[in-house]
Amino acid sequence: MEKNSPTVNAGNSLDEIDFAIISFMQNDGRTSFTVIAEKLNVSIGTIRTRFNRLLEENVITIIGRVDPGKVGFRSYAHVAVYVRPAHLKEQVAQTIALMPEVSFLAGTFGEYDLEVDVMCRDNDHLVDFVNKISTIEGVFQTKTTIYFKVYKYAQPDLALLETK
């Protein structure tokens, strides 16, 4: 076990072995249970049981992660959404969450109400998407920032959870 493994937070049911399994899978999702077990000095059964629990609890999911640009998504953007009246924020968020172009959606405090990151085929597709959002009841205004180049697209680094 590595000395710099993330520390379990209060109320979190994950331990150092769980975090190590997740780290291996983030690095290479095809890593075998045998390799992980050997590196962590535990049984393959332990890895299999814990991995299955992580799946069942939706801590991890198995996906084929693609490079968006290499498969045809040429227009990335951040869309700030202003909602009026404010009580419609949840309803607007639920509607936007159903749109397949959305890769990230969060409620915010500050200048705008919802932060939306989208991946579109091209700028025409992006324009259609923003126009579609603008017609949702409660959307008062949008502000779009186009990403002209993505320098990093990654999963969270579990090492950031380490305590000092």
From TrEMBL:
SUPFAM superfamilies from the UniProt entry: Dimeric alpha+beta barrel (SSF54909), Winged helix' DNA-binding domain (SSF46785)
GO biological process, one term: regulation of DNA-templated transcription
Stored PROSITE patterns: HTH_ASNC_2
Transmembrane segment boundaries: none
GO molecular function, one term: sequence-specific DNA binding
Top-rank taxon, per record: Bacteria
InterPro entries named among the record's database cross-references: ArsR-like_HTH (IPR011991), AsnC-type_HTH_dom (IPR000485), Dimeric_a/b-barrel (IPR011008), Tscrpt_reg_AsnC-like (IPR019888), Tscrpt_reg_AsnC/Lrp_C (IPR019887), WH-like_DNA-bd_sf (IPR036388), WH_DNA-bd_sf (IPR036390)
GO cellular component terms given for this protein: cytosol
Pfam families: AsnC_trans_reg (PF01037), HTH_24 (PF13412)
PANTHER family hit by this protein: LEUCINE-RESPONSIVE REGULATORY PROTEIN, TRANSCRIPTIONAL REGULATOR AZLB
Protein name: Lrp/AsnC family transcriptional regulator for asnA, asnC and gidA
